Amino acid sequence: MRRSIWNIEEAPDFKALFRLNPYITKPFDVYCDASGSGLGCVSMQEGRVIAYASRQPRKHEVNYPTHDLELLAVVYAPKKWRHYLLGNTCHIYTDHKSLKYIFTQPELNMRQRRWLELIKDYDLEVHYHPGKANVVADALSRKAHCNFIEARPTVRVLCCEIGDIEMPTALEAELYNLVLEPTIKDQIIAAQKQDKGMAHIRDEIDDKKKACFKLDEEGVLWFKNRLVVPKDMELRKKILDEAHTSMFTLHPGSNKMYQDLKQKFWWTRMKREIAKYVSECDVCQRVKADHLKPAGMLQPLAVPARKWEDIHMDFIVGLPRTRRGMIPFG
Predict the structure, then answer these.
(1) Radius of gyration of the chain (CA)
(2) 318 or 241: which carries more pLDDT confidence?
(3) CA-to-CA distance for 100 and 111, rounded, in angstroms?
(4) Do 131 and 32 belong together in one domain?
(5) Is 249 inside any structural domain?
(6) Could you give the C-alpha distances from 295 to 51, 159, 299, in angstroms and in order?
(7) DSSP, res 147
(8) Could you tell me if 30 and 121 lie in one domain?
(9) Which of 114, 141, 168 is where one domain is finished?
């Protein structure tokens, strides 16, 4: 650990951290949005961001109508920030205008009534906010899978049309060079052609022994609708890094990470490798809290009849690895 020296110059910066904390006595502004790919919320106070929150909809939530899905985002925010919003005035902003009257609607279904029971303890005021202005919550609710987007070039003849639209031409211009790097999909396809295991699967497909595997018109191997990743550990690590440490994912757990990756990729022992990768993540081990239920109360041991009759030893296990890969014991 690096040693730091406290000087007078550091005092204003240290006090500025306290000024960033929310004022419990002042109202909060929460902007919510929902889509088929996620729920997004941002909590603000006097124009300053307090916290962000987002999550994917569950399998049954994807089938909700638009009204219920937007209401789910409104309910999700108070549950997420209960320690901030309970007992304070909260202004909820949504781009679904009918939610302004959710507290006065005479006819509600059972799901909506159940959700209103959850938030009735909060002092909430729902306001309409146009979707074009609700950019932050909209971005949080629409998760983008980066580095796996197909771009198909199209040829358009523009030179012949410049004279028709009477576009003014500049005498001087700057020339830029755009270099395109191969995406993960291109790297997987290239690795499939060099892997011996993939060639063995192709032979079994021809013999109709592998019903779950298929080849497309470009000769790419698929497992049902998922791209098969060959046994290239460097390539697999790149996929795991993209799904775990990028700015779009923010260190998900092993189960969520597996659910995200299995929609697009497949390889043998995939879930086991993901669990091992997450367990070895230094940031997750140091920062994330344990979500398991606490252990039971300690039970007293019987008092021995004489000294040294019973010898007990306690071990502290489950500590995160050091940066050198060592496991500390306590």
Answers:
(1) 28
(2) 241
(3) 18
(4) yes
(5) yes
(6) 31, 73, 11
(7) T
(8) yes
(9) 141
Least confident of 96-100, 148-152, 170-174, 212-216: 148-152
Q: 96 is in which domain, residue-wise? A: 25-141
Same domain, 54 and 124: yes
Which CATH number does the domain housing residue 256 bear? 1.10.340.70
Domain CATH for 29: 3.30.420.10
pLDDT of residue 200: 86
What is the per-residue pLDDT for 211? Answer: 78
Q: What is the DSSP letter of 180?
A: P
Using CA atoms in the order 316, 320, 325, 326, what is the torsion angle rounded to 10 degrees? -20
Q: Cite the beta strand spans of 191-254 per DSSP E.
A: 213-215, 221-223, 226-228
35, containing H or E segment:
strand 28-35
Task: Name the residue with tokens 């029971």.
Answer: 117
Residues 133, 46, single domain; the answer is yes
Which helix (H) or strand (E) segment holds residue 69: the answer is: helix 66-80
Whether the CB-CB separation of 227 and 185 falls below 8 Å is answered with yes
Question: Model's pTM, two decimal places?
Answer: 0.47
Mean pLDDT, residues 304-324? 80
Last residue of a domain, one of 81, 115, 141: 141
What percent of the chain lies above the pLDDT cut of 70?
Answer: 78
pLDDT of residue 168: 60
CB 65 within 8 A of CB 91: no
Tokens 């919320």 sit on residue? 41
Quickly tell me which residue has 């990028």 as its tokens.
Answer: 246
Per-residue model confidence (pLDDT) at position 74: 93
Across the range 27-34, mean pLDDT stands at: 92
Pairing of strands 123-128, 89-94: parallel
Please check whether residue 46 lies inside any domain of the structure. Answer: yes
What is the pLDDT confidence band of residue 1, given thresholds at 50, 70 and 90?
Answer: very low
Pull the structure tokens for residue 103.
């507290």
Side-chain-side CA neighbours of 265 within 13 Å: the count stands at: 28
